[in-house]
Amino acid sequence: MRDSAEKGARARLKPGMKHGGSPCCMELEGGIRNRGLRMTLPRQLVAQVLEAAEGYLSAEEIYSIIREEYPAIGLATVYRTLVLLDEMGIVNRYNFGEGRARYIVTEDQTAEHHHQLVCERCYKVIKYSDFIEDERELYRKVESVLSVKHGFKINRHIVQFHGICPDCRKKEKQENENESSSGDI
Amino acid sequence: MRDSAEKGARARLKPGMKHGGSPCCMELEGGIRNRGLRMTLPRQLVAQVLEAAEGYLSAEEIYSIIREEYPAIGLATVYRTLVLLDEMGIVNRYNFGEGRARYIVTEDQTAEHHHQLVCERCYKVIKYSDFIEDERELYRKVESVLSVKHGFKINRHIVQFHGICPDCRKKEKQENENESSSGDI
DNA sequence: CTGACTGCAAACCCTTTGCATCATC
DNA sequence: GATGATGCAAAGGGTTTGCAGTCAG
Fold first, then answer.
1. Which is more confidently placed, A114 or B66?
2. Does B138 contact A143 at a Cβ distance shorter than 8 Å?
3. What tens-digit pLDDT sequence spans chain B (185 residues)?
4. Of A110, A125, B78, B127, which residue has the fewest beta carbons closer than 10 angstroms?
5. How many beta-carbon pairs under 8 angstroms link A with B?
6. Does A157 touch chain B (CB under 8 A)?
7. Distance of alpha carbon A50 from alpha carbon A15, whole angstroms
8. pLDDT band for position A185 (50/70/90)?
9. Is B119 on the interface with A (CB under 8 A)?
10. Which chain B residue is nearest to residue A142, measuring alpha carbons?
11. What is the Cα gyration radius of chain A?
């Protein structure tokens, strides 16, 4: 069960929305046209799957979700589309050290900068930008102190809180119960 | 020049310290003995190179640094040693999305929790734990707010400021000058 | 129609593994 | 000397690329 679409951060192709319409697809289509490229089904599908996802998806996961309904689509095309979407700034590519990349739709650039809660088990991500009072101000201050002190030109900051999401906590509890009730060492 | 040891976060084997003695080697030796494993030259060398490094190194970089003086050492051994060091908690493995892992000696666990300045060009890292006033307190507050709000069990946080270090800023400036003075398009 | 896009398979790159040999304990 | 560690080469796994056929514009 290495890479099924059944992992926590799952997504599905909703049969009712076969073609375009979602914010992501609109943006994609715009970008595509601008570049003189072509809008195709695989490109729509990848964008749609990522849009529907609750968190980071690997290429393989995206591929297998799409394949459920469109078995003709190839993995290479998924990869090529992801490169395109990344270049266009529609998705972002991340790496959690599993030996594979994971993708997520880029936060709306007009939206506020955000920080993240990442589940260490299922890679579901919760973004938040409802910072508590003084939080924003503090980062500004810290960045200015650091850039002066160390001569860095600071471009951005990454703030992630890692832990276990509610769903996975439930699962872990269940697993522990099963373990202790079975005869395992 | 994909992976030479000449990148910014460089390190060298100091001829004078061929065998052990560094904090890392001591810790390594202790851990090794405890496990009934054997202390060998390649293991010392990998630990030493990482200890001397100013930032994150890739396996290939470590390998090529060692190879300058010990051409007989194999890349596979470097990888195996890195797995060992990682398991023993002596080094940490990170991934910056280049398609390869990078390693760095684990911060001293007795030392204060710290945040990082990472150079996006050479992967040099500056750690700091001289937080400005209220910084520490703020993270505590944020974590408690988030864990209540989202039901996460928060284990740790990662705060990194990404940018360009002073050395690389200099290099970039030089490169730009060279570019504009040469006849390139 | 034309050229961009696709699926397939082969190539690539980083990393891991199998195996005979070597060296630590 | 026994057994863990090594070097080499081959295998793995994720990702990219070459190519001929396909399809959007």
1. B66
2. no
3. 333 334 434 455 554 444 446 776 777 778 888 888 999 999 999 999 999 998 899 999 999 999 999 999 999 999 999 999 999 889 989 888 788 999 999 876 556 678 889 888 888 888 888 887 778 888 888 888 899 999 998 988 888 898 889 998 998 888 777 656 544 43
4. A110
5. 116
6. yes
7. 15
8. very low
9. yes
10. B132
11. 20
Q: Assess A2–B contact: CB distance below 8 Å, yes or no.
A: no
Q: Which nucleotide is nearest to A82 (CA to C1')?
A: D15
Residue A55 C-alpha, separation from nearest chain B C-alpha, in angstroms: 15
Question: What distance separates the 2 farthest-apart alpha carbons in chain B?
Answer: 62
Q: How far is the CA of A10 from the C1' of C9 (A)?
A: 29
Sheet strands (E) in chain A: 57-58, 91-95, 101-105, 115-119, 125-128, 153-164
Q: What is the pLDDT of residue A81?
A: 97
Quick check: A97 and B101 CB within 8 A?
A: yes
Token representation of residue B167: 């050395």
Q: How many CB atoms lie within 10 A of CB A124?
A: 21
- Report yes or no: A117 and A125 within 8 Å, Cβ to Cβ: yes
Residue A163 CA and nucleotide C8 C1' are separated, in Å, by 41
User: Does at least one atom of strand C sit less than 7 Å from the CB of A77?
Assistant: yes
**Domains along chain B?**
1-111 (1.10.10.10), 113-185 (3.30.1490.190)
Tokens representing A47 are 């964008």
Lowest mean pLDDT among A44-48, A93-97, B42-46: A93-97
Among chain B residues, the shortest Cα distance to A139 is held by B135
Shortest Cα distance, chain A CAs vs residue B16, angstroms: 31
